[in-house]
Amino acid sequence: MRFEELKAGSSIFIDANIFIYHFTGISEECSLLLERCEGEEILGFTTTSILLEVMHRLMMLEALARELVTPGNIAKKLKSKPEIVKQLTAYASQVQKIPEMNINIIPVTQELCYQAVAWQQKYGLMTNDSILLAACRQQDCLHLASNDSAFSQVENLTLLQPMDV
Prior knowledge:
The chain is α/β, with parallel strands linked by helices. About 50% of the residues lie in helices and about 10% in strands.
């Protein structure tokens, strides 16, 4: 299913890569999906763990784009040079725009973590992916926007992937 096929009034969970593609200008489809959420045409959700992942990845991308670090193990380079991290600000303002897009942020609770373990064991998902799936199930949401094909094996979940990436 394509993003534009999602009917008005539908709910959708949004994975980190969709936000990254939007903020880096890689995918117009992802930007249009988020605009539909912002316009309240569809109801968007994500989790606090996805916010953290987006924040981390955008910070590293900003450091690279500003040529403050070289490619290769960027997180390690930033960790050893806090003076560079202090210079990075664009990523923070981008992440703060996510709730402004009318994206509902689901907190990662202890119970959600325990539910995620069952999804890890059933589908072999990594931790953040299993938490996202647990949150989808908790909200009775049947749609997930992600470019991660690991979700394609999940029963009773419609994976929507950008086609322009």
